[in-house]
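Case study 2.
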Amino acid sequence: MEKQLKKTPLYETHVKAGGKIVDFGGWALPVQYSGILEEHKHVRSHAGLFDVSHMGEIEIKGPDALQLINKLVCNDISVLQINQAIYSPMCYENGGIVDDLLIYRLGEERYWLVINAANTDKDYAWIKDHQEGQTVVENISSDIAQLALQGPDALSILKTITDVDLEPINYYWCTQGSVAGIQCLISRTGYTGEDGFELYCHSDKGAELWKAILKAGGERVVPAGLGARDTLRFEACMPLYGHELTAEITPLEAGLNYFVKLHKDNFIGKEALKAQKEAGVPRKLAAFTMIDRGIPRAGYPLAVEGNEVGFVTSGTFSPTLQKNLGMGILPAAYAKEGQKIQVMARGKGYTAIVIKKPFYKRNAR
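Prediction:
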């Protein structure tokens, strides 16, 4: 029996435009249009438009919404102002990661949690299992389309089809307004290492908004698929759930220490993370560049002097830097700049060297 894939509101639009559709965590999504390399470079130089409507949205509201979310996540959301966003891991009791998410404060007692598509049902069940106080928790994913316009030209393109003053929207802030006549939540977070905006609208307006942005951008914007989204986030060393973040990897091991606020009142996983920090984090996420030829792939073992010590979480050829690069989990003693390691593939070791993260950082504009 053929597997039935979920489809975003833009599925037919992607098919008609020649997007190469693949199964991505149970979703039928375009991996590429013109080609991963071309789309990647266009985002770095101009702009690319991504359909990320498969991402999940969970709304939590009520007098105790803040307390509930602060119990669920590692970061401290009490600092959030209305129309501000924050990033946070959400952990199990043992410190392993349930998911990583964006949290938007949209009102005094109203929040949106934006979560990874493949984790939507799992996250919703986890949140409902821990729900308490005067709170309403609702999975609104099917009502929302999300588009991401990313790249140095994103601002100038979007300005032509909205009356909203985009310039004052700072990194990790949002506002509400009309884009191409469509009511949207407009945020400025990004997952590519470039400037850009995310537009959340009602699902039945997603395709219309997509076409309006492409028309407004002309040759400066291209539709981009999951392939370029992955290579772009990888160059910026942004973690991907299921790779750098898993139920077996803690936020401290993944290098997300900044987003773990051990000073706040009890949250799920606090004691395990506190104990790990006090004992010394045993292993860490490291970035490395290949010295020998070969591309590191997720799951390949990492070795030091012939002894297997870790594993690759992500790896690819970097279109921007023209190098084979990787990220992986290593014992803390080996996760230091200048450390030589071997990537094991087909029984052979290929030499690499640990370098500083991120691989790519855009020039401030």
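The first strand starts at residue 6 and ends at 7.
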